[in-house]
Specification:
11% strand, alpha+beta, globular, three-stranded mixed beta sheet, two-stranded antiparallel ribbon
Length: 151
């Protein structure tokens, strides 16, 4: 049995809005691979973590298993994760199928206001929440575990 894919709690929200943007080309390709894996395998086991994960592994700002983008970034990322866990009831290190976790995330965070509780001033917020501006996608049922990204 393969090991679960480790994904930070807040990345379960971020990955859904992935459109092909990132810190550099290598990171974008890395994200594209993760998104494809989750889309193509809804039964994929994911371990929800509050530390650097599979996404961070391709990030140029991940150093010594911490986000070093800005001073305090590591703690800010952890706060994003803990807030997601609080609102969804998911426990740290919980392992579940990708579709089930996405359904929990999408049930808890359906509006821009709900997402603002998590995203705050994140530089990617206008980009990864694109689907909230689309009446078709924003109102579509996404509580079935569907990954919304369009890579």
């Amino acid at each position: 049995m393969a090991s679960p894919l480790k994904i930070r709690a807040h990345h379960l929200l971020c990955l859904q809005g992935f459109q092909g943007y990132g810190y550099n080309d290598a990171f974008v390709e890395h994200l594209r691979g993760i998104v494809a894996e989750i889309k193509n395998h809804p039964a994929l086991l994911i371990e929800v973590v509050t530390t650097c994960d599979a996404v961070c592994a391709g990030c140029p700002h991940c150093q010594k298993a911490e986000c070093r983008k800005d001073p305090g970034a590591h703690r800010l990322m952890e706060m994003f994760d803990l807030t997601i866990l609080k609102y969804t009831g998911i426990k740290p290190n919980h392992i579940a199928k990708a579709a089930s976790l996405l359904a929990q995330i999408n049930t808890a965070f359906q509006t821009r206001a709900q997402r603002a509780k998590i995203c705050g001033e994140c530089q990617w917020r206008p980009i990864c929440t694109w689907y909230l501006d689309s009446p078709t996608l924003a109102n579509a049922s996404t509580t079935d575990g569907t990954l919304r990204s369009v890579p």
